[in-house]
Each structure stands twice: as structure tokens, then as C-alpha cells.
Amino acid sequence: MHNGQDNSDIVRSIEKELGVPNLMARILATRGITGPEEAEAFLYPKLEDLSDPFLMPDMEKGVMRVVDAVQQKETICLYGDYDADGVTCLALLMNFLRHLGATTPLIYIPERKEGYGLNPGAVKVLKEKGVHLLVCLDCGATNVEEIGLANNLGIDTIVIDHHEMGTRMPPALAVINPKREDSRFPTRELAACGVAFFFLQALRRVMNAKGLLGHTINLKQELDIVAVGTVGDMVPLIKDNRIMVRHGMDMMKKRPRAWCRSLIRNKVMPDRHIDEYILNFIIVPRINASGRVSNPLISLDFLTCEDDEDSALHLKKLQEANKRRQQIEKGIIDEIMGILKKDDMAGRNSIVLFKKGWHIGVLGIVAQKVMEMYGKPSIIITNVDDIWKGSGRGSDNMDLHGAISSLSDLLIRFGGHRYACGITISEDNLVPFRDAFDNSLNGLPKKSTKTVHIDTHAGFDELTKELIECIEQLSPFGMGNPRPNLLLTPSSIAPVNNGRVKIVDHGKRTWYGYSQEKIATTLSGDIRIVASPVLRQENGEMFINLNIKQLL
Which domain-ending residue is among 378, 407, 440? Predict the structure, then answer.
């Protein structure tokens, strides 16, 4: 994202060539778009613009090993994580292998108490089950010893992951990860399901070239699942991620599969209105819920089911799991808020809390909410079978994985990326780790202050329905691609109720919206606001609402 002066030549050329409002052209130019051709590619992303999967190291080796396994009818195990990204990876490969008519793979999702990633006990179990090929999905990047054990037991391993690599490369047959230092893949920040989708693209290409596909396999239909995992993992919605999520949402609208139809029929989500909000706040929490408090296989069955009745039964279980997750989560957050009220937080750089009895399945989402409430990196830890495990979430102004890496001598194991981490730690090191982690953040602001990005200044007369419809072409919105924020200068702002405000411009026109900042009395005079315009339907008519992000 680029704050700064708009380039007038670029703005004029985009406005003229694409026929968009001048304000839309200014937004595009401010976001680093350099001309009409690039603007068109961004507004109307095409699947043919996806990057070449073979730019990832080991892609060919991994693909060829799966081809051999399918031809030889070897036993393949798909080993995945229990969150939305991991489960969507599993669903993608399961669907592809089913379309191939391959031997049904074994599925292994570790229980929460086993911890994240591959573990020695699981490797031994898979050997007993006769597994020839182990495919690690959304994990494996740092599992050096475990993959070494698999090698010793005669199991070949392919890693398809997106987490930060460790100091040593796992001794797998193929390690497919855009974060490898030798990767030439343009999009470094893929979700694991994105990496898995590119793997399937490469696999289909090779099998086609060898004449091994008896029928066409349509990978486009799998993009609905990729969209769920990508949005759920909160990766930047730019480049390849943007293309996949945009087309995935289109698939959900135009050709919804059984799992999507079930959500619509049971009124969990609206028909044909699928956006990043629906994905992030309706679908992803339900996919995650089974892995948090129940059995993640429910989510996997839901995403891969082809029968409407079975899909409805799976959804009912997910709804129950999500309700239970919400109750457990609320109880822990209420308890944590009680603890923090008694504690002096002002001098702390971070929040690290540990207690026996907290449900391990909700630690990540609790850490996220604590971080958002207090604006500080937060790690929440609990005891599972005499081992302490925790999840952390970082604030915008720091690299959580980097901070944790510097304290590895205090941890049994750890993993993650810039914004999230998982740790395993001994009881003796809980207090030393808490203090060392806090000290490692010295020099950072005591509280993360979110910078509100301003795309450009705008006049109220530029806010038309045509403009808002153009802005929607910038979607999906999310990390790396936020909804546009405009700098506006109204005549007055007055509170209405429940955060709703009335805005009057200098032409005496009235606008309505919601404010993230509390407005208790009427404001007038020299007012500047940062607001995001959106279309809202009221009584069958469409109106422009202004959601105020900041008063300046």
C-alpha cells in the first residue's frame, strides 16, 4: 500500500482507458497501480494469470512421487493440521485423488494434545498401517527429526507447507514451500491450501502430459475450498491469493457445492451474496470449530461430501461445535479480563498468561481477542497431559515468529509465522519465558496503535453508487488489500444511536453511517474524517453509508 501523492498522468490514463470514475482511478494509483493494463488485471483477475507452480522448489519431485504412488496403488497418508487451512488442504487432495480413482488415502489429523505438526508417535502408527507415502499438509517445514524417523522406517515424505522454514531443511523427498530461500515463486505469503492448489495444478499438468488422465479434472471447482482456507489463514489478499479467492467466491455464488448449498438452505449464510465477511465470520469459524472443541474430521467430511442430506447432518454437528466453542471461549476471556483488571498492564510490552484447565482448542482465538483488546502481543498457555502448550498472536508492529525464535532455548518446540505462533514449554520455564519474551519487545510501543490507511482525499459529490460499485471490484478485502478509506471534510457530525451518526456535508446534504470512534455530541467547524463508503439496502432501496474509521 502506498500513502502519498497521486500520479496525475496515471490517474488520467486509468480513468480514460477503463472508463472508471476519477476517484476510483486515484484509489488505484495510490495503491501502486501503474497504468490501465495493470488496473484491469487487478480489477478483473484471471485464472490464467496464476503463477507457474514449478517456480516452487521440489515441485516436480513431489508431483512425480505422487504419480508413481497412484500408478503403483501404494498406500498414501494425507497428514494435516486441524484448523481451516489444514482441513481445506486435506479436502483438496482428497477430492483430487477421488477424481483420479486412486486408492482412498489414509487421513491423519493429530489430536490437540499431540500438538501441531508431525510427531514421532504418529509416524510409528503410520508405519504399522503400511503407509508408503506421507504427504504433510500445512505442517512439516520444521519437522526434521520426525521426517528423519519416517525415512528410517521406509516411508517417503512430501511436505506441502507455508510456515517459516527452520535452520535445517527437513530430509523429505520434496519440501514444497514458497518461503524457502531458493524459491522463485512470486507470492511468498500463500496459505497452505494455496500451496496445495498449486501442487494439484502441477500434478494435473504432468498427468495430462503423460496421458494418465482418462477424463478432465476441473480444478476451478476446488477454488471455493481454497477461498475458505486462504481467508481463514489471514494471508495478504493480493497476487495469487486474490485471484484464487475472487474466483472461489464466484464458484460459491454460481455453482455452489453440497457444503455451500447446505449453509444457504439452513440460512447460515445468504444465497448468492458471498464476500470476505461471509467467509471470515460465518464459514471459517464453523470449519475451525470442530478442530477446536470436537473432531476435525467433521469439517473434512462436510467439505468433501457430495450428498445434500449428509452435508446437512455434518453442518448440524458443526453448528453445535461452534456454539460450544463460543461458550468456552467466552468463559476463558471473562476469566482473563478479571485477571488483567488486577494487574498493572501499563508497563508491560506483552501479555503472557498460563493456567491449568483452559481448553487448548480455543487458545489461539482467545490470544487473538486479547491482543485486539489490549493492543499487545498475547500468548495464552495451558496444561495438557503434564505438558504446557500455548498459542500466540502478534501485533502489527512486531514479528512474533522472530521474537519466539530468539527464545528457543526456553521452549521444547515452536512454530508459526509473523502474526501467530504455537509453543510447547516445560512448567519450569513458564515464568522465565514470560519475562524474557516481554524483555525482547523493549523498544516497541507499549501498545500497538493501528495506523489507518488513507487512500486519497475525496469530495462528497464524488460519492456515487457508480463509484461504490467500482470499489467493490477491488474485493476481496482483507490483509494487504483493505477496503478503501477516504479523507472527507464534512460540515458537521451528530450522534444518532448505537454508534450510528448523521453527517452533513458543506452542500447541506445528509449522510448516515457508523463511527468506530465514540461521538457523544454534535461536532462542527474544522472536521476531517477517514471513512469507508459502502452500499447498504434499507426498505428495498440502496443507500451509501459512511463508516468512520477515524476523526482527525
Answer: 440
